Amino acid sequence: MWGSIVVGTDGSETASQAVRQAIDLARALEGRVELVSAYEPVSNQRLREEAQQVPQDVQWMVNPREDVEATLRDAARLAEDAGVQVGTYARQGDPADAILDVAEEQRADLIVVGNKGMTGAKRFLLGSVPNKVSHHAPCSVLIIRTT
């Protein structure tokens, strides 16, 4: 029923709760988890400055995606430890768009998101990841209560 489950993470505790729920579902249903994390571009000047502050043999690690890749690696390890197949996707730009794009590309059966950001007037003015995903998803959406 839900063979492919997409879940976004930014490394926060609320996102980690959604990731754990997605992993639990995938394990129970013998499905696969597709982990998505978005990042904003970093200027080349800032990257050069940061690279100069680390030893030369690890300067290659300083890139616009390094934090996102570490976040995805940590979440993927949780899935692997649970015996769940996992894919990871680092995408530049808006987090909701990244989740929606991966869900379409992978023909996901389910998207799992946390409810953080869905309360108060901001959700009407600025939108939120769970709000946008729930209104534009190409599949079912499970919103996990994390707050």
Task: Tell me what the structure shows.
It is a single chain. The protein has 147 residues and is an alpha/beta fold. The chain has one domain (4-144): HUPs (Rossmann fold, 3-Layer(aba) Sandwich). The chain has six helices and five strands. It is globular, with a radius of gyration of 16 Å.
CATH fold description: Rossmann fold
The main sheet comes to:
5 strands, parallel
| Proportion in helices | 40-55%
Strand content: 15-25%
- Based on CA atoms alone, the radius of gyration comes out at 16 Å
Written as H for each helix and E for each strand, in order along the chain, the element string is EHEHHEHEHHE
Unreliable spans are 57-64, 121-127
Task: State the strand order across the main sheet.
Answer: 3-2-1-4-5
Question: Mean of residue pLDDT?
Answer: 82
- What count of structural domains? 1
CATH homologous superfamily assignment: HUPs
The first-level CATH class name: Alpha Beta
Report the end-to-end length measured between terminal Cα atoms. 28 Å
> What's the overall geometry?
globular
Number of continuous helical runs: 6
Assembly context of the chains: single chain
Structural class: alpha/beta
